TrEMBL record:
One of its GO terms (biological process) is asparaginyl-tRNA aminoacylation. It catalyses: tRNA(Asn) + L-asparagine + ATP = L-asparaginyl-tRNA(Asn) + AMP + diphosphate + H(+). The keyword Repressor does not apply. It is an enzyme of class 6 (ligase). Pfam families: tRNA-synt_2, tRNA_anti-codon. HAMAP family: Asn_tRNA_synth. Its EC number is 6.1.1.22. PANTHER family: ASPARAGINE--TRNA LIGASE, MITOCHONDRIAL-RELATED (PTHR22594:SF34), ASPARTYL/LYSYL-TRNA SYNTHETASE (PTHR22594). CDD domains: AsxRS_core, EcAsnRS_like_N. SUPFAM superfamilies: Class II aaRS and biotin synthetases, Nucleic acid-binding proteins. Keywords: Aminoacyl-tRNA synthetase, ATP-binding, Cytoplasm, Ligase, Nucleotide-binding, Protein biosynthesis. This is Asparagine--tRNA ligase. The lineage of its organism: Bacteria, Pseudomonadati, Myxococcota, Myxococcia, Myxococcales.
Amino acid sequence: MQVVSVKKALDGSVAPDTKVEVRGWVRTRRDSKAGISFVNVSDGSTFDPIQVVAPNTLSNYEADVLRLTAGCSVVCRGTLVKSQGKGQSFEVQADEVRVLGFVDDPDTYPIQPKQHSLEFLREVAHLRPRTNTFGAITRVRHTAAQAIHRFFHEEGFFWVNTPIITASDAEGAGQMFRVSTLDTVNPPRTDTGKIDWSKDFFGKEAYLTVSGQLNVEAYCLALSKVYTFGPTFRAENSNTTRHLAEFWMIEPEIAFADLNDDANLAERFLKYVFQAVLTECAPDMKFFEERQQKGVTERLEKFIQSSFERIDYTDAIEILKKAKKKFEYAPEWGKDLQTEHERYLAEEHVGRPVVVMNYPEQIKAFYMRMNDDGKTVAAMDVLAPGIGEIIGGSQREERLDRLDERMKKFGLHPEGYQWFRDLRRYGSVPHAGFGLGFERLIVYMCGLQNIRDAIPYPRVPGWAQF
Ligand code: 4AD
Ligand code: MG
């Protein structure tokens, strides 16, 4: 008896007529007049369930098999045979079907064998992994994460685990969640009535990180090629289909590199990850193609084959101004590009991914390198057809005097950033990096409409459970 995953049972890696044991959860049961039940069992290892053929000669046929409903957990033993039915390669002719757990009240079990709306499934985030959709998203998420680590490893990068609790606002945008052990009802106060943070756990104010970039820059200026891949948190009150309060971010950082090197890295990186998912998650991608968004696989294939177009921000504004298309927001130099602008550039203007470079300094973060024109910084956004910005990055300001000027402009106090300033005082070098929101990547690859379906347990304004 060989215990096998459904994936192995279906993919031909187990010889026909082998005695196998498969374990999983019932998707559907169908009974034939001839006294045979066909039970589809999924264990999540692959998209398809396996069909278990259970004859009425089983001793518990009436007591158990005929009571099976969606969601019941079973252990099935029998012979793996080539299937006669169409749509599946192999099936199990069962000698034994053991039920580990029935479903209390099958009529109210939330995951019925029918198509549920994604909105409804968000209400049952603990059960939605049992659906086709969330099984597929979970496998794609895993495969993409593996490919990301593999890509960087093959390119000689080191993965650095940057802290989740931090004192510095890496983006300087004031969107941090506070971490505190103080009594929120009656916090200790100073003589002047202000909250006395010196009584807090860390003896000062602490927050959840919005980005690992500043910390990873320190490692970059020693190990040359590094990246972070971890959770980040933003208290932006945007109740949208593109924002999460907790999301995962990938942030590579390269030393002795400029903005062009950064754009080249982003291009190689995205293509590598897309290729891995197309190759390794073919059945899941087929499902997304059919059920989420037609053309999603072709979009990725085209992406892999295209070379990225590079456009200066200033030129992009001119292109947008000349465009025949009516935009909701008029493009204007000095303002950030809206998604409609980004999509126009990538989809209609060039028809492939675009890297927009050198944005006005006033709309970009304090750590970005000032260009010689004194008006723009060496920032880049990678715009993907069908979504718009997918990656944001920059060459970093490696000159201390310029960094200080920019921090001053942003109203940031140098005291909180002394360690970051040190990197510019001790052996500073040109360096660059970018950030990719992992869930935005999942949304793009799977053709999802809402980022809340790209992470197992979404945290958004008003979130209350799980
Ligand atoms: O553009 P952002 O704010 O850049 C940074 O954080 C830099 N430190 C990156 C770097 O250069 N190392 O965020 C980077 C990416 C965005 O392009 C987007 O994909 C994602 O993070 N992102 C979010 N994803 C989900 N929910 C949110 N609220 C997000 N905010 C940003
Ligand atoms: Mg950005």
